[in-house]
Amino acid sequence: MKHFILCIFTAKIYRLFIMVEQLLDIAKYILPSVVVLIATYLVVNKFLIKEIQQKQLAIFQQNSNLTLQMRLQAYERLSIFIERMHATSLIGRYYVQGASVQDLQIAMVQGIRAEYEHNLSQQIYVSHEVWQTIKTVMEQEITMLNRIGSSFEMGTPAANYIKALSDFVLNPETTLPTDIALETLNREAKSILFSPQ
Description:
By secondary structure, this protein is mostly helical. It is 82% helix and 0% strand. The chain has six helices and no strands.
C-alpha cells in the first residue's frame, strides 16, 4: 500500500511538474508580449500627451494673436472716434452753407452721439480707464459745443459759431480733452503691443 500511495503521490507531483512546465512555457511567450505591450502603451501615451500639449499651445497662441489683433483694432477705432469728435473735424463734416448756429450745433452733437453708439462694443477690448476717458471726452466735447452754441441768439449764422469754436480750439492755453484721450489710448495700446507675452 505504501508503494501504491508513493506511486500516486509521484504521479501527482509529475503532473504538477508538467503543469508548471506548461505554465512556464506559456509565460515564456506571454510575458515578453505583456512587456512589449506595456512599453508600447507608455511610449504612445507619452507621445499623445506631448502632441495634445503642442496642439493646445498652438491654439492658445492663435487665440492670443487674434485677441491682440482685436484689441489693437479697438484702439484704432477709438482713436478714429476721438479724431472725428474734434471740433475742426466736426465743422468739416457738418457745416452747411446757410445753416444757423443751432442747426450746426445739433448736427455736431447728434454726430458725436451716433459715433459713440457705433463704438460701444469696443469697450470690451480696452481697459476701464480708457473707456472712462472716452466717455468723459465725449461728454466734455458735447458740453463745449453746447456752451459755445448757447452764447449765440437763435438764427445766428453758423459761420459765427465756427469762428468761436476755432478760436477756442486754436487757443494755445486750451488743453483739449481729445488730446488727453489720444495720449491715454496711445500709451495703453503701446503697452499692449510691446509687452512681453
